[in-house]
Amino acid sequence: MKPVDFVKIIVNQYNNYQGVFKNHLNAEDYVPKTSDKKKALFLFYVVQLDYATKSQRLYQGAKELFNHQPNFYSPSFILSLSRKELKDFLSTYLKPRYINEAIERYQINSRMLSKEYNQNPLLIFKQSVTTQEILNKIRKFRGFGPKIGNFFVRTIINTYSFNYPDIEIILPPVDIHDVKIAYLMGYINSPKMTTQNINQTKKVWSQACHQAGVSWLVFDKALWLFGSEAKPKSKEEILDLL
User: What CATH number is given for 3-23+168-241 in this structure?
Assistant: First the structure.
């Protein structure tokens, strides 16, 4: 199966809530019903911890924390906490694997968001003309590299339907699920998370999305769910699910 055909099938099933896509459990689906600014803050703080952890547990805990303390996801509140208080919140609800790094990110990024963007992540997007400009700004925050940075862009653009002239030429974020599926389907030669394999996987999915006339903003959500929920171990298992 060619990558373009794989993309078409996955996105069609996702859009129609078929099979493994019966439930949509992406980051965007966990955003609480609140003001636009608070939605963006929720994504800003939760997405930056979406590494080395089980994503759905992270987002479920994040939603519980919002219900318990709605003001938690704001620079002013986080910076008002002692290190121990912040650690208690994170350990109780978000449960990041690397708690000390999580604390550093929250404190450093809260200061920068306050200083540069008046505590509002949406200003990063509203004050930018292109997606590349947005990424350049986001990469200055601690932990917002090629994966988390592009992932955050995806969640905000999907949530607010922002439109930029270069959005479709931006390469999608790639995690271990994306690389593994690309390998099992024979699109790359190794499942290892090397820079070469990650970049090759980005190009495979990006080109396939272009050929299929599908936005990577949608395909990336579908592919993440396919990998994390179905957890296919072979090409045969993948094809059985399509």
Answer: 1.10.1670.10
